[in-house]
Amino acid sequence: MSLQSTIDRALAETPPGRVVWVALSGGLDSSLLLTLAAHAIRRYPRPLYALHVHHGLQAGADDFEAHCRRLCSRLGVPLFVERVDVSLSGGLGLEGAARQARYSAFQRRVACGETLWLAQHRDDQAETFLLAALRGSGVRGLSGMPPGREWQGRCLVRPLLTRSRGELEAEAQRIGLRWIEDPSNADESLDRNFLRRSVLPLLQSRWPHAGEVLASTARQAGEADALLDELAALDLEHLGGDPGQLSVTAVRALSPPRQRLLIRYACRCLSLPTPPEARLAALMAQLSARRDARVRVDWPNGEARIWRERLYLRSPGDSLPAGWRVDWDGLSPLPPPLERWALTLRRREGGPAALRLTLRQGGERLRLTWRGSRDLKRLLQEADLPPWERERLLVAWHGDAVVAVLLPEQGRWLVVAEGWEARSGSE
Question: Which residues touch 353 (CB under 8 Å, ≥6 apart)?
């Protein structure tokens, strides 16, 4: 199948009317992908746009942008340019930080429900497999880049993933395509460049089909990873289906590999980073802690807690400062970190309410319908609320009276006083 036929098929599989973006760097791969896509829309009409991310990391960055503008003008494809600042303060290294900035730009420009095409090819897949293997990645890392996946409500597609760099070069020469070579590609201090320029050519000198075989192995690892996800999903369903709260007894009944698999899968379901191997091992060791123990194992942007034979997986969240207070009318949107919740609190008989939200201090009481005045501490014990959630509760006051109690991380009213009505939900 010709490269043009490959792109035609990928475009035909895109729902009619859906916007297709091409991430255009100005190099050979993305320039060819955009050119073939521009030819394909004559047969399969779709809205087509190009997106260039200007990293500003080298003196020739403006030349890349200029090339992208000339190419898009010749093809009649609208071009959008996103300028980004690449920060090295996050400990990701230059390659990782640039990738993070690039994907942030994709998210800003490409709307939910739209499709973004990326120009990675089979040789890129082989490099990704080797990098993952050398970093000690598991099956998920070895599976490399998927040909397509949902990402932040958008569809990421790699139409060229089964084709080699040699095929792309031959097609570019055949149609007289011009592109810009990135001078940083010659820098072998970067891991991927070292693999591309030194390691893979050496492997291919001994095993001519090394790139194809490595990419095929990555594809097989992807299938194995999908099967493992199916197994983990079955285990999660058997445990009740809530990834944020698992029965410790039921988790312990699984074999250790399935325990690790389930915890990683549950974290992904919750959009949490999966725990590094050492932290996961520490968590596994705590599954046999005595029932009254308060266990906490944390890792960057994630934590696990064990309380009363339940394993809780969650984001640690940001603690509110001591003395935090917000004045509120019960109807207006609340400031961060509560802005994502559509919260209301009003008198049952109507009329304006001057409220204030504060952190729980202890000793609060409120009057409940049919139950009279009740101590909040006793109500929390009745609700079987974990200790760390009790510490983060917000209390709504009307004058000197407590009228409601809020779970801020869930955006849920836990209890509402007599004579008041409350609603909650996400924006």
Answer: 329, 330, 345, 346, 347, 398
Q: How many CA atoms lie within 13 A of 179 on its CB side?
A: 23
* pLDDT number for residue 308: 86
248 and 395 share one domain: no
Q: Report d(CA 187, CA 62) in Å as an integer.
A: 20
**CATH code, domain carrying 56:** 3.40.50.620
Looking at every residue in the chain, the average pLDDT score rounds to 88
Q: Give me the domain span that covers residue 117.
A: 3-218
Cα–Cα distance measured from residue 60 to residue 65, given in angstroms and rounded to the nearest whole number = 9
pLDDT in tens, 140-183: 889 989 999 998 889 999 999 999 999 999 999 999 999 888 77
Amino acid, single-letter form, for residue 315: S
Q: For residue 228, is it within any domain? A: no
Percent of the residues in the chain that have a pLDDT greater than 90, as a whole number: 49
In a domain, 213, yes or no: yes
Residue 233 DSSP label: H
- Residue 225 inside a domain? The answer is no
Q: Is residue 223 part of a domain?
A: no
The model's pTM is 0.74
